[in-house]
Write a structure and sequence with these properties.
Layout lengths: L16 H22 L4 H12 L6 E5 L5 H7 L4 E6 L2 H6 L7 E3 L12 E7 L8 H11 E12 L5 H22 L3 H13 L3 H10 L3 E8 L4 E7 L4
Length: about 240
């Protein structure tokens, strides 16, 4: 982890990978607690839903990209599949040591895995932090075997306009206010709020997944669309 004088307080929306990694290094110690507080405890449910959507079987191999401290990797491993967590933040991975799951440092733009290594791949609340979403989707497609399953869980756009207004107010004002009380780096959560606001709506992101080469693309909304779980399948040979 970077020393205090070297920490990047927040990344910009250009999402330079070194800045993003340094920012998450700086909030790693309290990141999981902040997730639970900001999501009002619903983060546990979303991790469970990702596991169910992947339909993992004993003996299958799954990539958990953007795994952070490995909380999501642990949840996925409950299926009996072999799951490896990967993240660009070495500070986050360090917090996850001792969870009993394999965790590796990796840049989502150039994954250190061979073609067709996994039956399933997933990324939760992390794909909006990369500078080239199309490239990451293509990388995930590359490491999947034919008929491999993709699940992406991400903040999204509430479908009911009155709730959308309230939700964005909570994201833009509530996230930073909570961070001022609970986080050592509140500025990082200003970036988080801005990145949520800039993320495309469900149909637009689904189209992006399809353009990357996936088929059978669909999504399911949680909390009125504040979070969406997107699915896709790599074409069979």
């Amino acid at each position: 982890m970077l020393c205090e004088a070297e920490q990047v307080t927040r990344a910009s929306l250009d999402k330079d990978p070194s800045e993003v990694a340094a920012m998450f290094d700086g909030v790693a110690a309290g990141y999981d607690r902040m997730n639970t507080v900001m999501s009002l405890g619903m983060d546990r449910h979303w991790r469970s839903e990702v596991r169910k959507a992947l339909g993992l079987k004993v003996g299958e191999r799954c990539l958990d990209l953007g795994a952070g401290s490995g909380v999501s990797t642990q949840e996925l491993s409950r299926s009996g599949a072999w799951v490896v967590g990967a993240d660009i933040s070495l500070g986050m991975l360090s917090v996850g040591r001792g969870r009993g799951v394999p965790l590796v440092g990796a840049d989502a733009l150039s994954l250190p895995f061979a073609d067709e290594s996994f039956e399933a791949a997933t990324i939760s609340f992390a794909i909006r932090n990369v500078p080239d979403v199309d490239r990451v989707l293509r990388e995930m497609l590359r490491v999947l075997r034919p008929a491999g399953r993709l699940v992406v869980c991400e903040f999204s756009t509430p479908t009911w306009h009155p709730f959308r207004t309230v939700y964005m107010e909570y994201v833009m004002r509530g996230f930073p206010l909570l961070a001022q009380r609970l986080s050592s780096n509140p500025e990082a959560y200003v970036y988080l709020a801005e990145s949520v606001r800039a993320w495309p709506a469900q149909p637009d992101f689904a189209a992006q997944i399809q353009r990357a080469g996936f088929e059978a693309v669909a999504w399911r909304n949680f909390v009125g669309g504040a979070v969406a779980l997107h699915r896709g399948t790599k074409p069979s040979l």
